Structures are given as C-alpha cells and as structure tokens.
Write a sequence for this structure.
C-alpha cells in the first residue's frame, strides 16, 4: 500500500472511531454526584428512606443519594446540627425544615435557594395542597418544596374511650366534660411531654384558638395586637385549669414527648395531642392502630382550624448540585413515589390526591380526608415567633404550671417581652 | 554564629511543630475566634457580624436570668467540692486496705465516671420518671407513696435531683486520684506516728491529709472545671434547663443562647465569662496548693 493510501486509511478509521471515542469519554467523564440529603427522620423510617433513596440511583446512575440524619433526639438537635453545617460550609445539598420562623434564619442568612424557577420547570404549583406552598413563600419568593402537610389534634385511645362511653365533643365544654369523666375514672385525660416545651404548647395554642378565634389569633401571632388582653388571660386560665385539675399526666413538664406516648398507648391516659404521624409511630412501636382515633378540637368558631404546618425540603444556596437537588425533590414528591411509599418511608404527604390506603391505613387515610376539607390551619407558636421571643412564651407557659405566673401576670409579662423584642429587632 | 546551637533549636522546633500546629488550630484559634465573636452581635449563621464591643458582657450582668444561672453554678460548685471529695476520700481510704474483692469495688465505684454525661442524664431521667421511674416505684413499694412526685418536673426538686446525679457520677474520679496519692505515702510515717502514740484519726489528720496535698490540688481543679463544663450533658439530657429556667447552668445557657436563640455573640460572651470564672478560682488555688513543692 502506498504511503498516501495508508494515511488515508488511518484517517478514515480514526474518523469512524471518533464518535465512539467521544461517546465513551463523554459517558465516563459524566460527573459522579453525591447528593447529600439531611432529614430529621430516624429509626425505622430512615431504613425505609435509605432503601427508597437507593432506588433513585437506578434511574440516575451518576447520582448517589447520601441520607444524613441528626443523631439522637432528632427534632431537638437537628436545627443546631444543620445550621452549624451550613455556617461551616459543610451543609447538605438538600435539607428538611419546618415552616415559619424555624427556617426563617436560614432564609435570612441566604442559605436557602429561591425555588421559583423549579416550581415553573416542574409545575409544582399544581402538585401540592395550596396552603402548604403558601406557608413556604416569603415576600413572594418560595424557598421550600412541601413534603408533608401536618395537622395536630387530639388523638384518643379507643378502648379507654369506649369503656368510658364517650362521644366526640361538639364544643370545648364537651371536651372539658370528657376530661372530667376520665379523671373520675382514674384515667389521665391527656398525656403530654413538656421537656422541650413544644408539646405543651400544642394544647395552649388550641386553647388560644378557642378563646380568641381565628382573626384575633392571627393578630396575636403577628404581634399586631396586645397579648395583655382578656382572651389571652382566659386561654391561660383554661390551661391552668387542666394543670390544677390534674388532667395532664403527672410531672409532664420534664417528660420527653416520645415518652409521653407510653401512658397513652398503655391506656393510662385517654388522649394525646399529636399529629398525623401518630398512626405510623403507633405501628412502629408495636401497638395496634385500630386502637387509635382522633377528633379535631372544637373551637366554637368558623372556620374550624387546627394547628397545621408543612414540612419542606430546601436547597442549600451553596450547593454545587442545585439542579440535581431539584430533580431529586421532584422525583421524591412525585405522585408515584408518594403513593407507593405512603405509610413506610413517607408518613404524611402534601401532594394533592395522595392518601394512604383506606384498608391498610384507615386512620392516616381519614386524617388526610379531614385535613384537606379544612379551609385553613394556624401555625404552631414555635413557627410564629423567633427563638428568643418564643422562649419567653415558654417561660409563661411553664410558669403557669409551676405557679410562677398567674394568667394575668403571664399575659402582662409576655406583652412586655413582645414589645422589648420588637424594639430590638 | 554557633551553627550547631541554631541547628538544635531548629530540630526542637520541628519536633514540637506537629503538636503545636494542632494546638494552635484546634485550641488557640477557636478561643481567639470566640473572643472576637463575643464582641459582636451575630446570629451564628449570617455572613455579617455587627461589632458592639463589650455590650454582650454588660447585657449578661443586666439579665435577671444570669443570676439564676450563676446561683445554680455556684451551688453546683460548692456541692461538688464537698460531697464527692469527702466520699471519694472515704472510699479511697477504705479501698486502700487489703480487702477481698477490692478491685471489684474500685471498678464499681469508678465506672459511673467513665459513662458519657448524656448517658448518665438519660439513665437518671428514667429513674426519676414520674410514672414509670424506679425511684417512685420504690417509694410506693416501701410504703412511702406520699413522697412520690415529679422530681424533675417541679423547680423545688429538679435541681436537687440533678445534684444527686452529678454527685453519683463524680465520686469515682476523686476516689481514684486519692487512691493513687495514698499509695505514695510512706508507711514509715504511720509507723513513726503510731510509736509516738498517735491514734488512727490523728494519723489521718496529720499525715494522710497533708500528704495528699497534690491530689487535692488536682481533684479540686478538675471538679471546678467539671462544674462549669461537664455538667452540661447531665442538665441538657435531664431537664433541658427547665422546668422554666430553674436548672439552667452557665454551659447550657451558653448553648441555648448560641444555638437556640441565635445569639452567637452573647453565647460566646457567656463562654468567656465561664473561662474567666474558672481561671480566677483555679489559678490562685493551684499556686497556693503547690507552693513550696
């Protein structure tokens, strides 16, 4: 073969191989991404989630989802662990957060990526319960994608309830009558775990909704009106009544919330104030969910509201994999994934139309059905006030129990603290 | 130039450099940084900090909660300096004798000290649990049901309950250090004293206690630091500073302000106040105790 022909042959072979080389190098050079996802879900749920996240890599081979959970008591330490990570530049790509002021500092500090472009790309506005997205929007910018739509209310032990021949209350007075009857029969009306303050807060929040009504409650939460007023004093008085009548499990101020479920499950307490995570938590603890039922606390106001809040995924604004993070969130919140994993990896959903199987998980199904009927919910106080002011609220709450505050002095004290906080912030 | 001497200095520096670097990076730098932060208003997360000078320190002494916190720490320190020291010394003297099974006893009394603080706090939280705890169950079973209460759920009993836990956890360390000190005391001192007519009590007062001077210096220094620092895990796990703020101590209050109230500047100032308190107590004490040694 002549030299010229050999050259031509080599060039032709190279030209033929070029696309193959390009394709091979392109594939092998595709970036391997480790997507760090931090949540507050431990225990059995973490195991389910780990299995689920591993499936993501089947359809996205270059992405490994690393699921990180805050060790120990989860909710009690999660915020500190997350914020330390964000501040030190070692924060996760995607992280779980609650709504309101709990994630407020993260937004204010610039660590939460605005997600409006992804809402448009993935059409998320049509996917979720309306109020769940609204709660994650601030100054017309949305910073989170709702994972769950949580509601908190009174759950009761069915066996104990039926043994006392009780009926669901239509009014707050009915609720007090239920508490009185339970106590007379040697049953604690309600189990609470007040160690971190937020469980006790749930009952107090409900009582404020009863005495103040929706409109005034909103104004109180926004500090648009004084807390030193008759409706607040009345709510504090009602709370003190629950304490003084020993309608709450003994020594509750320092019982951990998880531990407070034990007397409830064992039938020593009639009710507990918990959220729609109770059925899977009950099942995980080995108790029969058929022995669990709920009612929305009657307030005597229209519309009826319960405490509700979304939980969300946010994307770290320092993340180098924002698009991959959004893609992952889109997958996780898809109807297909939510339906398939409801009750195991996923214990509550904000996706419209997704419910638990009514045969397999009747309580979860029922709760979602009732929750979506509500026109609105009100946020828990720990998502309304910043930490410093919130802990003054907790001071009053605990002081009503210990006797440090009367309802009147408590209302006055909190109003003073609110004014001072507004001056300094 | 004495080249050999210079070379030797360089060699010395090279040998200490790794440890020095670790010390500078993990000890000195964080200390300096926290001092700088304490002079600022900062939420612990935002990119900017506002310089406010010593306002955080002034605010600490204006805050009514600070007095509850300081009072609790002072009480904790006093109790720790008395009870575990006395109990530790008594146990050390008893276990210094050739008793059968003394190694087992030493292990039993020392083992709480090696448990993590949080674990100790959780164990004792369960012991004090108002409905299911061992303490209330025992009281009911021995006919003392009228004393059953929510030990950690009321201000009047929460802090004393924590003190009991901390004492339980702390006895092992003084016991071990005193035991080591006792074994260094020459038996001839006791023999001479006995010959001179001293009884056991006199020997204890005039020989044992003075000979344990170094051990006392170490034990008391460690207990003072422990009262400021190590009690964090127990208080955090048992009461979270509550009920109300009745069991708040400096270390937990520092944590709350830094991480929960998002006042990292104020929290850092509390950390430095703790450091200054510790130094004001420990440095003179060690100087006195180690004088003429």
């Amino acid at each position: 073969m002549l030299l010229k022909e050999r050259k031509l042959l080599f060039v032709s072979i190279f030209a033929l191989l070029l696309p193959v080389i390009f394709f091979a190098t392109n594939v092998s050079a595709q970036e391997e991404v480790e997507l760090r996802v931090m949540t507050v879900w431990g225990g059995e749920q973490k195991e389910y989630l780990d299995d689920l996240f591993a499936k993501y890599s089947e359809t996205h081979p270059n992405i490994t989802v690393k699921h990180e959970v805050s060790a120990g008591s989860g909710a009690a330490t999660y915020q500190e662990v997350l914020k330390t990570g964000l501040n030190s530049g070692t924060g996760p790509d995607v992280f779980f957060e609650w709504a309101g002021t709990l994630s407020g500092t993260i937004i204010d500090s610039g660590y939460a990526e605005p997600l409006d472009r992804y809402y448009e790309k993935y059409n998320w506005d049509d996917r979720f319960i309306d109020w769940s997205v609204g709660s994650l929007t601030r100054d017309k910018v949305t910073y989170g994608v709702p994972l769950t739509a949580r509601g908190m209310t009174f759950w009761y032990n069915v066996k104990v309830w039926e043994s006392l021949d009780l009926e669901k209350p239509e009014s707050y007075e009915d609720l007090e009558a239920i508490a009185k009857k339970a106590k007379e029969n040697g049953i604690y009306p309600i189990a609470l775990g007040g160690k971190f303050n937020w469980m006790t807060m749930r009952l107090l929040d409900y009582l404020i909704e009863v005495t103040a009504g929706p409109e005034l409650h909103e104004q109180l939460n926004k500090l648009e009106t004084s807390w030193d007023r008759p409706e607040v004093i009345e709510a504090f008085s009602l709370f003190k009544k629950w304490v003084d009548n020993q309608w709450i499990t003994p020594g509750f101020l320092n019982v951990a919330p998880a531990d407070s479920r034990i007397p409830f499950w064992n039938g020593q307490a009639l009710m507990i104030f918990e959220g729609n995570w109770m059925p899977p938590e009950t099942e995980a603890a080995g108790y029969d969910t058929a022995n669990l039922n709920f009612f929305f606390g009657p307030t005597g106001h229209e519309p009826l509201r319960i405490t509700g809040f979304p939980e969300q995924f946010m994307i770290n604004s320092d993340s180098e994999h924002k698009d991959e993070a959004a893609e992952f969130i889109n997958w996780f919140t898809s109807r297909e994934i939510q339906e398939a994993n409801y009750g195991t990896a996923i214990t509550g959903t904000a996706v419209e139309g997704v419910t638990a199987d009514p045969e397999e998980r009747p309580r979860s199904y029922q709760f979602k059905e009732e929750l979506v009927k509500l026109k609105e919910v009100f946020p828990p106080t720990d998502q309304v006030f910043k930490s410093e002011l919130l802990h003054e609220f907790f001071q009053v709450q605990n002081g009503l129990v210990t006797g440090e505050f009367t309802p009147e002095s408590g209302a006055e004290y909190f109003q003073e603290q609110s004014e001072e906080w507004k001056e300094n912030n | 130039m004495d080249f050999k001497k210079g070379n030797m200095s360089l060699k010395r520096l090279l040998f200490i450099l790794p440890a020095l670097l670790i010390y500078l990076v993990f000890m000195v730098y964080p200390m300096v940084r926290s001092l700088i932060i304490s002079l600022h208003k900062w939420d612990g997360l935002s990119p900017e900090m506002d310089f406010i000078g010593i306002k955080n320190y002034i605010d600490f002494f204006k805050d009514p909660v600070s007095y509850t916190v300081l009072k609790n720490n002072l009480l904790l320190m006093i109790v720790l300096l008395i009870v575990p020291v006395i109990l530790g010394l008594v146990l050390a003297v008893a276990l210094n004798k050739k008793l059968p099974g003394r190694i087992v006893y030493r292990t039993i009394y020392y083992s709480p000290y090696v448990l993590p603080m949080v674990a100790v706090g959780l164990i004792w939280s369960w012991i004090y649990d108002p409905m299911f705890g061992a303490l209330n169950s025992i009281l009911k079973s021995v006919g003392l049901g009228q004393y059953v209460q929510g030990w950690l759920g009321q201000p009047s009993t929460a802090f004393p309950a924590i003190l009991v836990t901390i004492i339980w956890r702390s006895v092992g360390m003084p016991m071990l250090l005193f035991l080591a000190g006792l074994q260094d005391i020459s038996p001839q001192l006791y023999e001479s004293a006995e010959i001179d007519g001293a009884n056991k009590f006199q020997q204890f007062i005039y020989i044992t206690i003075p000979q344990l001077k170094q051990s006392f210096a170490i034990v008391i220094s460690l207990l003072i630091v422990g009262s400021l620092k190590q009690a964090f895990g127990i208080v955090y796990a048992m009461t979270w500073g509550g009920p109300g703020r009745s069991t708040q101590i400096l270390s937990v209050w520092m944590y709350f302000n830094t991480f929960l109230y998002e006042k990292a500047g104020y929290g850092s100032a509390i950390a430095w106040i703790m450091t200054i308190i510790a130094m004001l107590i420990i440095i003179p004490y060690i100087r006195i105790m180690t004088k003429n040694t």
